[in-house]
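agent> Task received from the user: take the single chain below, predict its 3D structure, and emit structure tokens. No templates, no multimer pairing.
agent> Plan: (1) validate residues, (2) run structure prediction, (3) serialize to tokens, (4) report one or two observations.
agent> Step 1 OK, no nonstandard residues flagged.
tool_call: predict_structure(input=
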Amino acid sequence: MANNTRVETFGKFFEHNRDGRLNKAFNESLLDIAVLASGWVKEQLYSGHGFRSGYLKGSVHGGMVKNLHAQIDAGELMKGRNVEYASWVEGVADRNKRSRFKGYRMFREVFNRLKGKPKEVEEIMAFHIKKAVGE
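)
tool_result: status=success, residues=135
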């Protein structure tokens, strides 16, 4: 069974991107969303739940990797590589398969939350797009 998608545009929507304003708005939106979502990851790191020294929590950041590509990680953006034990705390390391500790899945929880298109994300996108097109 084939899936067909039809997109229609009206008006001068794409004229606003001639000078890169929409591209800039999308990048600003992605950066704001990545910073917001990194805060959601940090909220899950509390005493008794992946928090001991605060090093992992302090290493979680969101930022831009390249044009139209944001990332939330456990140190790679700021330090060049993720905190060594971050994958174990998340639950995706080989070590988790051999132990009873299955991880907290903090990043996965945030990913699923973002997939649900929360109101905050829609508001961020709307704000930056309206600013770019002059509304």
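agent> Step 4: summary for the user.
The beta strands are 46-47, 50-51, 61-66, 69-73.
agent> Done.
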